[in-house]
Amino acid sequence: MEKHNLLCSELKQLYVAITRTRQRLWICENIEVLSSPMFDYWKHLCLVQIRQLDSSFVQAMQVASNKEEWHLCGIKLCNEGNFEMAAMCFERSGDTCKEKWAKASGLRAAAHRMHGFNSKMRHIALLEAAEIYEVIGKAESAVKCFIELQEYERAGMIYMEKFGESRLEDAGDLFSIAECWSRAANVYARSNNFSKCLIACTKGKLFDEGLQFLKCWKENSTPAMDIVAKLQRLDETEQAFLENCARYYDKLKNTGSIMKYVREFYSIDSIRIFLRSWDYLTELVLLEEELGNFMEAASVARLKGDILCEADMLGKAGDFEKASRLIIFYVVGMSLWGSGRKGWPPSHFPQKEELLMKAKSIAKGKSEFFYDMVSMEANILLNQEGSLLEMGQYLRASDEFRNFLAQCFCACKILDLHFQPRPSKYEWEQEIVLDQMNHAYNTICRIKLSIESLVYFWNFWKGMVGNIFSYLQSIGSNRKNEYLDHGQFCLDYLGVRKQKNNHGFLYLLLNSDACWVKEINKSDIWKNRHLVGLNLQQFVSAARSHWCPEVSLAGLKVLQRLEALYDFAKCNFFRLFCQGMVVLHMFQVAQFLLKSDLQVWKYRLRELQEFVASSRVRFFDILFPHDWRQAMTENLIAWRETTLFMDLLKDVIIDNIHLEGKPTYGQIGRVMMLIFVSGDLTDALYQKIASRFFVNAPWEAVVQELKKKQEVRICTDLSSSEASTGSGRYFQCDFQPDLEDGF
């Protein structure tokens, strides 16, 4: 390489001379021998011309390039990226437009070189370039500069103004980037780009404009537009837009605006799905009603727990029976469990009469039979102070209609009427009543009260409640169908509607604050925005907890009334038969409350035990009066033949033989007297008596002999010496009341 150093140096100089030349390169050589090989090579390639250095050559050098040459040179320089020199060439050629174009290109190239170093100068250069491009009509280049400057709105305006319809979508895209939503939506609409238009309206919250676009497209629809809409899946985009509009106004709680957009949904099913999912049930009911979809409106009203609205829709749909029944159900629930109410007796509330009249009016559309039944129910519910005659008539009618709710209301009102007057207002039966039902109905139809009518309606009412307990116990068993009617009565009375769900049944409450559900933990109760409900276990527990004290309270009222009637009869020296019937009924009611599967004794145990004890004492006094002739009257003999009498007699015997300690003469005497009276005891009871008296052999023998001769009524029929001895000892005793006896 060292021997070629000179050559290398000269080649470098040649390279610099060639690359730095602007127009022409002149090489002067005075030693032809040295230069000839290279010149010959260049001439062979047609790269050089050889001129003699004389005056003509000098003159040629002084001739300027023409405009075309400058122009071509400018283009060449632009292609090479030398925009500054190109601009000078275009200036020399007189092409102002190309000059500005080259200048703008130079500025843009300079801006690219400054990227990341000098943002301010870069911005200035790009802006100037963009403006120059825009002036000279290079719109595309101007747009690119403005995009780099992030001036998307200005870039979009150029597309919109300079390119007409061809670049409207691009303009819309730029307006969207700039968040100029109104311009973007309008440009998209002009280009029939429906989906992007609605998206722009959504993002810009231009909901009214978007809705107008939709209406305009539908009004001016053409086959070509329909094809475009289908390709763009406009239905889905339209639905999404309308739902977004509705959700926006949901946040603002603007129901009117919500429904304006919901009404534009593509189908009623989509409207239903949206309004249900967003809990606009009231609006959905109104819409369904407006469209004439009354059954659907009723279903939605049920979801929101609006019973009166549901009834109204059912009536319009022609389901008159369900509509009337719902109104009655509502009136019953509000009368018993409305604000501050604690069940029976039913109370008045605003609109009660109006609602019952409406129920009757709707019932006319079903049938005359159904109308009569609803009219009866309405009269019962409206008649707060109904007379015995009216209640008796309604009770018979409700039996014909098999209407348990009406039966219960009538029975309760009749019982209340028995509790109100003084004992002196009662009629007193002088003989055994064989047909209690007809006797009770005949009594109240004469607007009279009696012990038998009191007891009959108590038994009637507790029988209905007993069937309710059977229903509650049968739920989930194979016997549930036996008590369906009583179950419906229970639901109607408590203001409960049974609704099927994924886990079985839910028991929805008309009034979630009803006192009969107060013992259930509120946090355990199912609820949503509109409804409150109980599961099966909660409902059964709460229903039992309600009815048990109701039975106990009503039973105690009956006992207290019987107590007052007994005191009245005794004070006024009524016949023993009258007193005895009261005692038998008192014992029957108290024993039912104590031994019933309803376990109502838990609520008033001590009071019930006192009533039973007093019944036993009074029973003995009546059975063995001081004047024995009183016990031989015909009606009292018939009294001793009743089932109630035998029940109480056996109870008194058992009560005496179950006393602790050695039996006293008083106990033995009472038991023996009761055996003489009864003459018809079971073997098991005789055995109990004998085992109790085994410590006293003569009396044990008497008991054994009586067992053999159950038909014997008087002691003279006894033939055994043991019996004579035992009874003789008894009658020889100085019989004084024993302090430990129960009497």
What is the gist of this entry?
The protein is an all-alpha fold and 743 residues long.
Describe the structure.
- The protein has 743 residues and is mainly alpha-helical.
- The protein contains 37 helices and six strands.
- The protein has a domain at 642-743.
- Strand 1 (426-427), helix 26 and strand 2 form a beta-alpha-beta unit.
Largest sheet: 4 strands, antiparallel
**What's the alpha carbon Rg, rounded to whole Å?**
55 Å
**Spatial order of the strands forming the largest sheet:** 3-4-6-5
Helix content: 55-70%
Low-confidence spans: 711-743
Q: Helix count?
A: 37
Say how many strands there are.
Answer: 6
Taking all residues together, what is the mean pLDDT? 83
Q: What share of the residues does DSSP label as strand, in percent?
A: under 5%
Distance between the termini: 151 Å
The best one-word shape is rod-shaped
The structure class reads: mainly alpha
Give descriptors for this structure.
four-stranded antiparallel beta sheet, two-stranded parallel ribbon, 3% strand, disordered C terminus
Question: Mind sketching the topology for me?
Answer:
Layout: H1 5-20, H2 32-44, H3 55-61, H4 67-79, H5 83-93, H6 96-113, H7 119-135, H8 139-148, H9 152-162, H10 168-177, H11 181-190, H12 194-203, H13 207-219, H14 223-231, H15 234-251, H16 255-262, H17 268-277, H18 281-290, H19 294-303, H20 307-317, H21 320-337, H22 352-363, H23 368-382, H24 388-401, H25 404-419, E1 426-427, H26 436-445, E2 449-450, H27 451-474, H28 484-494, E3 496-501, E4 504-509, E5 526-527, E6 532-534, H29 536-571, H30 576-595, H31 601-623, H32 634-640, H33 643-657, H34 665-678, H35 683-692, H36 697-708, H37 721-732
Helix pairs in contact: 4-5, 5-6, 6-7, 7-8, 8-9, 9-10, 10-11, 11-12, 12-13, 12-15, 13-15, 15-16, 18-19, 19-20, 20-21, 21-22, 21-23, 22-23, 23-24, 24-25, 25-27, 26-27, 27-28, 27-29, 29-30, 29-31, 30-31, 31-33, 33-34, 33-35, 35-36, 36-37
